[in-house]
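Reagents: none. Just compute today. Reverse transcriptase zinc-binding domain-containing protein.
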Amino acid sequence: MREAQLDSHDGKRKCETLWPIFKIAHQKSRYIYDLYYRRNEISKELYEFCLDQGYADRNLIAKWKKLANKKDHLWVKWVNVVYLRGHTWSRCCPTSSSTWAWRRLCKVEDKMLDGFCGNWWLNEGNDYTVSQGYQWLCPTDEVVPWYPKIWTRMCLPKHSFISWLYMHMRLQTRERMCKFGYAGDICCCLCADSVENIRHLFFVCPYSAICLQLIAGNLKMSIPDTGTWELWDQTRFPSLLHKQVIMAALCALIYQVWKARNHSLHNGVLIRPEIWVKSLIPELVFRCKNMATDRSS
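Predicted 3D structure written out:
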């Protein structure tokens, strides 16, 4: 103990003396690293020139890159020690004592194993990316015919999203909720005459049919006796702009009918169709005028 107290601590004092010099080199290396990897303000050639000329410390930058890429992630080390224990992931089976997250990861691994072993991820030594994994799971690039009619610049995003759910038959109507254990009334919230499903709401229901007639009257277009998709698919328009305005109006109408349904369900109040359409038209006109002006400019 006495020897420790009498120790001059020369090594510590030497490090404290030299630290201002090391700090300058550290900050310079950090600055060059940030310029290239984080800000993307210098080219790869200039970055490599700085390393070759000694303006930046290669070893320090290698450590920062390793931390940024999470090569030494603590969770990965924990998984290797606790679960894998020297085995490959494909041979590891989760036990009843495994955490929920680990069991879910093993299920995902079972799905992706064929792509990892039988495709380019393992054979060519490339790093895995989420986008490429998704393309392997969904290899078909088929585009549905209604896609360009819904996702247009004329449509508000909220209108496009509800219309997208409608085309996929995924709106949570009362009939659909019965599949998930809903035991309440399944009559339509707008007319109370039929079972509430997507086919009825758009546009068999008298309430939504009136909304459709009001919109068609404002746009001066005829309404065939078929459903919404047939209306979009079979109608011919004099110009592309006219077509986009009609599509935007129909998407907005689907959104407003669904909004009226939710308002009736949650608030117990059914607002007249004329009021919904009256609030819809100015919003639609404003959107279409802005988009048309942006395109012309």
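The two ends are 83 Å apart (CA to CA).
Action item: order primers for follow-up constructs.
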